[in-house]
Amino acid sequence: MDSQERVVSAEDIEAVKVRIAGEIAMSKSPGVAMKKWRQLFGEKQREVAARMGVSPSVLSDYEQGKRSPGIKFVSRYVESLIALDLEKGGANIRHFSDPSRSRHRAILDLREFSTPVTLDKIVDAMEGEYLWRSRGREPEVYGYTVVDSIAAIRYMDSTEFIQIFGLTSMRVLVFTNVSTGRSPLVAVRVYPLKPVAVALHGPPSPEQVDKLAVELAELSRVPLILSRSKSVKDMIEALRRLG
């Protein structure tokens, strides 16, 4: 049975509660951890605050670290996330409690950041340059996935593509073994989930990247980056040092 069809059990709910509460309690910045999980669940601050019975400004103070949450507040916070997700079908609970998920052979590295990292820091780490980017506020990134594009084409089917998003789509997808970049951008364009950004490793210069790939990035409103790291190993090591 697909994880999206699996019934949410009491054990699933308890496992996710323990996971969220534990991370918040153990975090050096509990407010950041709270905000992270709210965003992972796709909930707006005002919705969670309303369910908790507090004002959005109060919840904002906790997420910004202006107040320190106690056990009871964290418990109400977690219960609110769970309740809101159950009302929408429990997809996040199923996702975060599913023990059957294992890394696909096409995924070379996958990391979640304990605190968000700016996209510019990730670009610097991979010695990258933007091929296309939107104007406006710089997005926060909560993780990255490095994918061997050839292995993905050969062995990954449409139902397995979700694995490259890890815990959240708020991440950078890095495709290696790339010749022109068209195939990865086609996949990103047609897939319903969108990453914060896409990076390509392989083309020696921007001129070698397919113009259609850049066009698809712009149509999807997803920043496109070309990594100049000497090797995939060097790039992964640099990304791991970010958090």
Please render the helix and strand layout as text.
Elements: H1 10-26, H2 30-40, H3 45-52, H4 56-63, H5 71-87, H6 91-97, E1 107-118, H7 119-125, E2 128-132, E3 140-148, H8 149-155, E4 172-176, H9 182-190, E5 197-201, H10 211-220, E6 224-227, H11 232-240
Helix pairs in contact: 1-2, 1-5, 1-6, 3-4, 3-5, 9-10
- Rg, nearest Å: 19 Å
Strand order of the largest sheet: 1-3-4-5-6-2
The run of helices and strands is HHHHHHEHEEHEHEHEH
Please tell me the CATH architecture of the largest domain by its name: 3-Layer(aba) Sandwich
Q: State the CATH superfamily name of the largest domain.
A: HprK N-terminal domain-like
Q: What would you say this structure looks like, in words?
A:
45% of the residues lie in helices and 16% in strands. It is of the alpha/beta class and 243 residues long. It has two domains: 10-97, lambda repressor-like DNA-binding domains (434 Repressor (Amino-terminal Domain)); 107-240, HprK N-terminal domain-like (Udp-n-acetylmuramoylalanyl-d-glutamate--2,6- Diaminopimelate Ligase, Chain: A, domain 1), CATH 3.40.1390. Strands 1-3-4-5-6-2 form a six-stranded mixed sheet, sandwiched between helices. Strand 4 (172-176), helix 9 and strand 5 form a beta-alpha-beta unit. Helix 3 crosses helix 5 and helix 9 (182-190) runs parallel beside helix 10 (211-220). The longest helix is centred in the N-terminal third of the chain and has 17 residues, at 10-26. The chain is globular and about 55 Å long. The mean pLDDT is 90.
